[in-house]
Amino acid sequence: MIMSQLVPNMSTTPVKGKENTRSLLIETGIDIMLEKGFNNTGLSEVLGACKVPKGSFYYYFQSKEDFGLQIINTFDEKYVLELDRVLGDKSLSAVERLTSYINESIAKAEQRKCSRGCLIANLSQEMADQNEVFRNRLKEIIEKRRSAIALVMQEGMSTGEISADLNAQELAEFFLSAFEGAILRAKVKKSTESLHVFKKMMFDKLFKYRQDR
């Protein structure tokens, strides 16, 4: 476990400047951690990229662990907004919303040439066995995503798009597990082939129930 450090007194810093600097550090940390992971992200690299002195870092964050947790929270907040935008589009049916979610993910992977992946999935692989605080926070986020997907699937079951014989929570768990696995394989292969296979099997086979009616 990474030890916390005392926060120096810098109360003369303007509030607006504080928030701008804190946001800059977090955004830079997200970019670097997507490339290198938590353990290989050095504070000196983040501070150098932001042109922020090392002593100032501990005004905003108690430790590197605290910094990592704030990065996770910020990344999740942005992801939730995107998830709500896609899954909350009531002009589309449940399965159409899920399809849109996957299509957007594939498009982003292609734009990034299958690099980086999802920060939550990356850190889950890296930190789950190393840091219990990280593991618990990442678990909360993953469970929240599963619940959001399950709600849409439950809606699909109520309208007949998805077989009512299935369990929405279990189906959402399978959906996310297979999807994250496909993202990992896409990173390794530098190809979205795995994502397209996931989409085909999920929507053309598992959700074929509705199409055959």
Give an account of the 3D structure:
The protein has 213 residues and is mainly α. It has 2 domains: 9-61, Orthogonal Bundle (Arc Repressor Mutant, subunit A), CATH 1.10.10; 64-211, Tetracycline Repressor, domain 2. The chain contains 10 helices and no strands. The chain has helices spanning 15-36, 43-50, 54-60, 64-87, 94-111, 119-127, 132-159, 168-189, 193-206, 208-211. Helix 5 runs antiparallel to helix 9 and helix 7 packs across helix 8. It is elongated and about 60 Å long. Mean pLDDT is 88; it is low at 1-16.
Detail the topology: elements first, then pairings.
Layout: H1 15-36, H2 43-50, H3 54-60, H4 64-87, H5 94-111, H6 119-127, H7 132-159, H8 168-189, H9 193-206, H10 208-211
The top level CATH class name of the largest domain: Mainly Alpha
- Report the order of strands and helices: HHHHHHHHHH
Q: What is the number of domains?
A: 2
Label the CATH architecture of the largest domain. Orthogonal Bundle
The residue ranges in which pLDDT falls below 50 over 5 or more consecutive positions are 1-16
Provide mean pLDDT, rounded.
88
The main β sheet shows up as: none
Discrete helix count: 10
- The fold-level CATH name of the largest domain is Tetracycline Repressor, domain 2
Alpha-carbon distance between the two ends: 55 Å
Helix percentage: over 70%
State the shape. Answer: elongated
Secondary-structure class:
mainly alpha
Beta-strand proportion: under 5%
CATH-level-4 superfamily name of the largest domain? Tetracycline Repressor, domain 2
Q: Find the count of extended strands (DSSP E, 2+ residues).
A: 0
What Rg, in angstroms, do the CA atoms define? 20 Å
